[in-house]
Amino acid sequence: MRARLLRLANGLSESYWFVPTVMAIAALLLAATMVWLDSHHMATWMDGLPWLYAARPSGARSLLSSIGGSMIGVAGTTFSVTIAAVVYASGQYGPRLLSNFMSDRGNQVTLGTFIATFLYSLIVLRTIRSPDESGGEAAFVPQLAVLVGVLLVLCSIAVLIYFIHHVPSRIHINSVIERIGDRLLLEIEHRFPKPIGHPADAPDDEAAIPVAFASDAAPAMLQQRVCVDAKDAGYIQLIDADALLRIARDRDVIVRLQYQPGDFIHRGSTLLEAWPADRLDDDAIDALRDTFASGSRRTALQDIRFLIDELVEIAARALSPGVNDPFTASSCLDWLGAALADLGGRELPSRLRADKEGQLRVITHPVTFSGFVDRAFGALSQYASADMIAGKRFVAVLGDVALGCHAADRLDKLTSLTRQFRDLAGEALTGVNREVVLQRADELLRALAAPDHQRRLRDGQACLGETA
C-alpha cells in the first residue's frame, strides 16, 4: 500500500492539473475570507485613502468583470502555448520527454495563477450589491476584496512576463538536456546506490545464497520456493524496499527479486520468489505483492536507467539521417560522461542485502558499472561511429570517464568499448574523417593501457577533448 501511495504522490507532483487545482481552491478560500472581513467592517482604514477606494458598486463590478474576462482569456492562451510547446518538444526530442514538460512547475503555476485570479474575481463579484438590489439595505462593496483582486492582477502580469520568457528557454535543447543530466547526477549522488537493508557480511560470496535459488536446484528444493505473481500489467515504478525487508525479516524468509524498477510486467509475471514457502501465508504473499507499484509508463522515481535512456534517445534522434545534428548528440554525450565519471568512482552495492542482524534477506539484481556503460555508450556507439564530430566527442568522453575510474575491471570495460567503437568507426567512416576518429581512439587505447593512465589522459586531454 505504501508503494502505491508513494507512486500516487509522485504522480500528483508531476501532473499538470494538481497545482492549478490547489491554487484555485486557495483563491476560493481567499475570496470568502476577504468578503467576510469586509462584511465585518475591516476595511474602514481605506476611507482615508481615496485612490484605493472603489466608491460605487458599478465601478467595482466593471473592474472585477474586466479582470475575470481577461484572466480566463489569458489562461486559455497560456494552455494553448503550453500544448504547442509540448507537441513540438515531443516531436523533436522524443515522446518520452512529454512528462518532463507537463510536470514543469513554472507552467503549472502560471496556469494556476490565471485560473485563481479568475475564480477570485467571480466570487467577489457576486457579493457586490447596489442600493436598488439590496431591498432598502445599504449597498455593499467589498473594498478590501477588490483591492486584493487588483493585487492579484499585478501578480498575474508578472507571471505572464515570466511565462513568455520561460517557455522558449524550457524547450531549448540544451536546457532539456541539462535538466535530465542534472537529475541523473542528483539521483546518483543522493539515491544511488539505494540499498535494501545492509550489505551482507560476504557480499560477493555466492555460497551465501540458499541452494533453493541455485540454477541447478533439485525438484524437491524448487518446491520450497513460493512465487509471488503480479496482478496487473505495466512498468514497475516503485519498490518499497523498507516494507520488503521488514516482511522478510518478520517471516524469517529470503526473497529474490525477479524485476527491478523500469521493467515491464504482465499478469502472472513472477515479481519475486521467497524461501522457504511454508513460512508464508496468503496475507504475507499479498503484503509482498503490495511492495510493488506499477503504471503505464516508466518514471525516474527509482529508475536511473530511464534518465540514461532519455539522453540516449535525444542523441540517437540527433544523429539520425533526417536530423543530422552532431552537436546536440555531443551535449548528450557530455552529460552521460559526467554521470558515468561520477559513478565510476563509487562503490556499487552487493546484490545480497541483509537486515540489521546481518542475516541475508533480499537478493536483488546485480548493479554493475559495465551495465550502465553499455546502457549509455554502448547504445550510442553505432550512431556516433558514423559521424566524425560525434565520434571524436565519444572518444573524448570515454577518456573523461576513465579519469574517474581506478578499478581494473572498469578500465577494462572502457578499453573494450573503445576497441568496439574503433571497429565500428572504421567500417562506417571513410577518408579523412575515418583517420581522425581512429587516431583519437588509438590515443585513448594507448593511454588506458599505461599503468599511469590518469596522468596520460590528463596530458593528452587537450588533444582528445577539443572542447569549445
TrEMBL record:
Organism of this sequence: Sphingomonas aurea
Keyword list, A-Z: Membrane, Transmembrane, Transmembrane helix
Protein name per UniProt: DUF2254 domain-containing protein
Pfam family, one: DUF2254
Residue spans crossing the bilayer: 15-37, 63-89, 109-128, 140-164
Highest taxon, organism lineage: Bacteria
